[in-house]
Design brief:
single chain, alpha/beta, Rossmann fold, eight-stranded mixed sheet, 16 helices, globular
Length: 412
């Protein structure tokens, strides 16, 4: 089985949930199912600029071939934002898809990464691959590439409830995909609710987990990374790309307010991840530490020693960082404005929700009570069991295998 995975960015040092999911799935399809996996991606690391950071051409990620294509345009966030507001305004007053389609096509090009050489490659070489996996509905490689191979496509939209999901061209992707894989039940429900056609081939297949827990990291690793004073600090942790789309700026004032009320027990906010070049988040609070990109060992140590992990995003299709934290026995605080995060909080008893400052403070108090008793251990155990029941690699890979076999049989 030869499989192409199409994703906007890719690499061990590339940050992002879609990219982490694509890399994990690629590795498991190659190692566990013995599929011949090739990545079709761009030369960029940063979705806010689409600069060509890697060399174009072939490279390897272990046994996996990575084929990179240059972007021909850098991203102009201001133009993209203006055009998005125009399209959304016209949609609200009922302008037809026929009129909107050219504007939406321009929006996708501005959104990027604009790499027509990739879509040409897909069209010219589509018969070399048995199945194509497309990650993330928002970007040009999926919009331009999926319709060319729709009869053998598995589409992972990673959909959020946002205006572009209702654009005509994204509706077309939902209609023409052979299979759609959602990360969670709420994402599946969202896709069905916005799709203008009935799609019978939606499956749940997010990130899988082996039935093992991560290794316990030595606190010395944290001391060497942070220094002796900050390594002993009580801190909340955010992992991932640092930009406004993640909602980080909304909870920094909550941290400041908490520390004003509790000077005897300060609570820091550690951010582990690259700050997007176009981001203008104010990180000047004395309680905030931007740690930059961290390697796997340091990341695991930060999770294991955090008071709690925080995911303040309103737009999630899974939330890998919540799962990683629960498996590391660290509770979480998540934004209840996200349907997916609310779904996780309902099923993972070691996760608290918030929307207002008072709810955020109440979550900190609740986790403090858990930590003062055996309740946290019990909640973590039940949460870990739920993850293994619903997101084991065995279950996820079986879903991929079944879909690929159907696609193969239809070709005969």
């Amino acid at each position: 089985m030869r499989v192409a995975i199409v994703v906007q960015k890719y690499g061990a040092t590339v940050i992002g949930g879609a990219e982490a999911l694509a890399r994990s799935v690629a590795g498991k399809l190659q190692s566990d199912l013995s599929w011949n996996v090739e990545i079709l991606t761009t030369t960029s690391k940063d979705h806010m600029t689409w600069t060509n950071d890697f060399n174009e051409g072939l490279e390897s990620d272990g046994p996996i071939v990575v084929r990179r294509f240059n972007n021909t345009m850098s991203r102009c966030s201001r133009s993209l934002s203006i055009l998005g507001r125009i399209i959304n305004g016209m949609r609200r007053v009922g302008v037809s898809d026929q009129i909107l389609s050219p504007l939406e096509s321009m929006w996708v090009i501005l959104q990027g990464p604009y790499c027509p050489s990739m879509t040409r490659y897909i069209e010219e070489n589509k018969d070399q691959y048995d199945v194509f996996l497309f990650f993330c509905y928002l970007y040009y490689p999926t919009v331009g590439g999926l319709p060319l191979v729709h009869e053998k496509s598995i589409f992972l939209p990673l959909a959020h409830d946002e205006p572009p999901l209702r654009y005509h061209m994204f509706q077309n992707l939902l209609r023409c995909s052979r299979f759609i894989f959602a990360n969670t039940e709420p994402e599946s429900t969202l896709i069905k609710s916005v799709s203008k056609s009935k799609h019978e081939n939606i499956r749940i297949a997010g990130l899988g987990y082996d039935l093992t827990l991560p290794p316990k990291r030595s606190i010395d690793l944290l001391r060497n990374f942070l220094g002796p004073q900050e390594s002993n600090a009580k801190y909340l942790l955010f992992l991932g790309r640092i930009d406004k789309g993640k909602g980080i700026q909304n909870i920094i004032p909550f941290i400041d307010q908490w520390n004003e009320k509790h000077p005897e027990s300060p609570l820091y906010f550690f951010l582990a991840g690259k700050v997007s070049e176009a981001s203008d988040i104010d990180l000047s609070s004395k309680w905030v530490r931007s740690l930059g990109y961290v390697n796997t060992e340091v990341k695991e140590c930060l999770i294991q020693n955090a008071f709690a992990l925080v995911n303040p995003s309103e737009f999630e299709s899974l939330s890998i960082i919540v799962f990683e934290s629960i498996l590391a026995a660290t509770p979480c605080i998540v934004n209840k404005r996200s349907n997916v995060l609310t779904y996780l909080a309902q099923n993972l008893s070691a996760v608290c929700e918030y929307e207002t400052p008072n709810e955020f403070f109440a979550a900190i108090d609740e986790i403090t009570k858990w930590r003062a008793s055996n309740e946290l251990q019990d909640r973590i155990l039940r949460s870990q069991n739920w993850i293994f029941d619903h997101y084991s690699w065995r279950k996820i890979l079986n879903t991929y295998q079944q879909a690929a076999e159907i696609i193969q049989n239809e070709k005969k």
